[in-house]
Amino acid sequence: KQWYQRRVRGKLKERWADYTLKYNSTSFSMGYLVEIPAAFDTKKKYDEVKEFFDANTDTIGTGLKTVSETLATIKTNIEKKGTYGGEIAEWIKDYYKNLI
After folding, report:
1. Cα–Cα nearest to 64, from 13, 10, 26, 12
2. In sequence order, which residues have a C-beta less than 8 Å from that of residue 52 and are 6 or more positions away?
3. Chain segment 43-62, per-residue pLDDT in tens
4. Residue-wise over 38-71: b if at least 16 C-beta within 10 A, else e?
5. If 0-12 CB within 10 Å is exposed, 13-18 middle and 19+ buried, where does residue 83 land?
6. What residues contact 25, with CB distance under 8 A and at least 6 apart?
7. CA torsion angle for 60, 62, 63, 68 (degrees, to 10)?
8. For residue range 78-99, what is the model confidence (pLDDT) as tens digits?
9. Which of 58, 67, 81, 86 is 20 to 30 A (C-alpha) from 30?
10. Helix (H, G, I), strand (E, B) or coil at 27
């Protein structure tokens, strides 16, 4: 999961200018691009995503509402990870221990 997220996020940042030219700020496709980082679940990634979109507000256009939703989703992911992360990790360990 982590390597894929880094790669996708890196491509989004790297090619943002290309995407804004291709889809322009009035395209609904911008909303889909803005959703890409929604799977992140750390404060560091939240800060990076927020900083990136804050710096590119003028090119987001119709995706602007989706930015706030994406940031809210990342916050929820962080909270869920904090609340349930330990339990899930234990369940996974037990599950795989029983398979061996």
Report:
1. 26
2. 13
3. 998 999 999 999 999 888 88
4. bbbbeeebbebbeeebeebeebbbbbeebbeebb
5. exposed
6. 59, 60, 61, 62, 63
7. 100
8. 999 888 888 888 888 888 887 7
9. 81
10. coil
